[in-house]
Write a structure and sequence with these properties.
Length: 480
C-alpha cells in the first residue's frame, strides 16, 4: 500500500514539478556563470580508484564523451563550519534537493547521517531514477558512485571547505560519462539530461547556502570540461560517410566547370576584429578576450547570380591568433531567429544584413553559433561594384555576436572591414575552417565534418582541372 501511494504521489508531483523546473531554468539559466575547467578530464577519470564493489558503474565502462563538472557557491557570515554544514546535509539530502524533480530515498542503511555503504535512489521523472552508493566519507565531504540502472557511469562528490578569512565554499564535482546509448542521446544529443542536471545541482547549491544560515557571495558558478575518449561509433561513421559523399562528389564535379562551385567571385578587404567579451565566461579566447586582431575579409555572392537578383551573400574571415596560428570563419546571410539562424537566406544588400555561421561550434559542453550584424544606417546593394565603392568611402562596421543553438544573441566584439578592395586575381583566397580552427572552438556535428572533406575534395579537383591558385598570401603589414 505504501509503495502504491508513493507511485501515485510521484505521478501527481512530476508534471507540476517539471513545469516548476522549466520555469526556474528559463528564468535563471542565463544568470549561471559557466566556464571551462581546462583540466584533463580523461586523466581525472583515470585517477578515480577502482572500487571492487558489485553493481558500481565506473566511468571507464561508460559510453560517449567524459564530462567533469564543478558547481561552486561561496558563503559569508556562515555560523556553521564546513564540517557542521556537511553533517547537516548528510542528515537530510532532500533539505537541499529540488524535490519537484529529484527526491533522495535511502534504500540501504539506517536513519543516521549517511555513511560509506549507504545506498539511495534519486527519483526523477521518466527513466531518470538514479541509484547511487556512498563510497567515501570524511567530516567535510562525501562521495557517491553510480550503480547499475543509473543514466551515468561515474562519481559525484559533495564537499565544503573553511576559507582562511572566514566563510565557507561549497562544491559539487562530478566525473562521469553516459552509461548507455539512451543516456548519451539524452545528455549529448538532445541536451535534456544536461540541462536538468544543471538545474538540479545549481538549485542544490542555492539551498545549501540557505541551510548554512550564511549569505551567498555572487551566483553559483558552473565549470565544465569535456573530452572525447573514443572515435565515432559505427552508425555515426556511416551517417558521416553518407553526408560527406552527398556533398563532396557533386562539388568536386562542379569544380571541373568552374574554379569555385560556390562564391565564384569576391572582393578582399582589410579587417580588424575588436573583441571585448560577453557577460559570461566561455573558455574561448575569441569570446572572452579583450584585444584587437588583424586579418582579411572576403565578401562574395554564393551562386553568382546577376546583381539585381537575390543571392546568398558570404563573409569569409581569416585572422592571425596570438598564439595558435591563423583562424578562419565562414558566415553567410541567414535569419536571426531561433529557427532562421539554421537556414540560409538570400539577400539584396550587403548592409544592413545578418551573417551567421549556420553550422555549430563546440564551446566546452555547449554548441554555439557565431554571427555578424551589419549595422543599420548604411545601405549597400549586393553587387561587387557598389561594395568596392562604398568601402572606399567609409568602413563597413558589423557587431560580432554569439548564441547557443536556441539561445539569444550576445555581442562579443566589432568587425571593421575597409577598402581598398582587391579582387580574386590580385589576392586569391581559399578557406578551410576545419583545418584553420578557432582556438578552443572546434567545429561540431556531422555537417561540419562533411564540410572539411568537401573543401579538400574541391581543392584537389581544382588542381587536377588546372585551376589551382595560391590559397595563402601574407597578411597586410597594417590595417588602415
Amino acid at each position: 500500500m505504501r509503495v502504491r501511494w508513493r507511485r501515485r504521489a510521484r505521478a501527481v508531483r512530476w508534471p507540476a514539478g517539471m513545469g516548476i523546473a522549466l520555469w526556474r531554468w528559463l528564468r535563471n539559466s542565463r544568470r549561471v556563470r559557466r566556464g571551462r575547467l581546462r583540466t584533463g578530464a580523461v586523466a581525472e577519470i583515470k585517477r578515480i580508484p577502482r572500487r571492487d564493489v558489485e553493481g558500481i558503474q565506473p566511468p571507464r565502462e561508460g559510453t560517449g564523451p567524459v564530462y567533469q563538472r564543478r558547481y561552486t557557491v561561496r558563503l559569508s557570515d556562515c555560523p556553521l563550519s564546513a564540517a557542521q554544514l556537511m553533517e547537516r546535509l548528510g542528515k537530510d539530502l532532500n533539505a537541499a534537493s529540488p524535490v519537484e524533480v529529484a527526491v533522495f530515498d535511502k534504500t540501504v542503511g539506517d536513519a543516521r547521517p549517511l555513511e560509506v555503504g549507504d545506498e539511495y535512489v534519486v527519483h526523477m521523472p521518466g527513466p531518470w531514477n538514479c541509484p547511487v552508493r556512498v563510497v567515501e566519507r570524511t567530516p567535510e565531504s562525501f562521495r557517491f558512485a553510480t550503480l547499475q540502472g543509473h543514466l551515468e557511469a561515474g562519481e559525484i562528490e559533495f564537499r565544503a571547505q573553511d576559507l582562511p578569512g572566514g566563510g565557507v565554499v561549497f562544491t559539487i564535482e562530478s566525473w562521469a560519462r553516459s552509461a548507455d546509448r539512451l543516456g548519451k542521446a539524452l545528455y549529448v544529443g538532445l541536451g535534456i539530461a544536461k540541462e536538468m542536471q544543471l538545474h538540479m545541482w545549481t538549485h542544490f547549491c542555492t539551498r545549501v547556502a540557505e541551510l548554512s544560515g550564511g549569505r551567498m557571495i555572487g551566483a553559483v558558478e558552473v565549470w565544465t570540461e569535456r573530452a572525447d575518449v573514443s572515435g565515432p561509433g559505427r552508425f555515426q561513421r556511416l551517417v558521416t560517410g553518407a553526408v560527406t559523399s552527398a556533398f563532396a562528389r557533386p562539388f568536386a564535379l562542379a569544380t571541373k566547370l568552374r574554379d569555385r562551385p560556390l562564391h565564384p567571385r569576391g572582393l578582399v578587404f582589410d579587417a580588424t576584429l575588436t573583441l571585448h567579451g560577453t557577460s559570461r565566461y566561455w573558455g574561448v579566447p575569441l569570446l572572452d578576450d579583450r584585444t584587437a586582431l588583424r586579418g582579411r575579409a572576403r565578401l562574395s555572392r554564393a551562386v553568382g547570380l546577376p546583381p539585381l537578383l537575390p543571392d546568398v551573400l558570404g563573409l569569409a574571415l581569416r585572422w592571425r591568433q596570438p598564439s595558435s596560428g591563423e583562424a578562419e570563419l565562414l558566415l553567410a546571410t541567414t535569419g536571426q531567429t531561433r529557427l532562421g539562424r539554421h537556414l540560409l537566406r538570400p539577400a539584396t544588400r550587403w548592409s544592413p544584413a545578418f551573417y551567421g555561421s549556420l553550422l555549430a561550434y563546440r564551446a566546452g559542453d555547449r554548441k554555439v553559433l557565431l554571427g555578424a550584424v551589419a549595422r543599420r544606417g548604411s545601405h549597400i546593394p549586393a553587387d561587387l561594384v557598389s561594395l568596392a565603392r562604398a568601402l572606399d568611402e567609409r568602413p563597413l562596421l558589423l557587431d560580432l555576436v554569439v548564441a547557443t543553438e536556441f539561445g539569444p544573441w550576445e555581442r562579443f566584439g566589432e568587425l571593421r572591414i575597409q577598402g581598398p578592395a582587391r579582387d580574386d586575381d590580385s589576392e586569391p583566397m581559399r578557406f578551410n575552417p576545419v583545418l584553420n580552427r578557432i582556438a578552443h572552438l572546434p567545429p561540431a556535428g556531422v555537417l561540419q565534418q562533411a564540410r572539411g572533406v568537401t573543401y579538400a575534395a574541391v581543392r584537389n579537383a581544382a588542381r587536377r582541372a588546372g585551376h589551382a591558385r595560391s590559397d595563402r598570401s601574407p597578411l597586410p603589414e597594417r590595417t588602415r
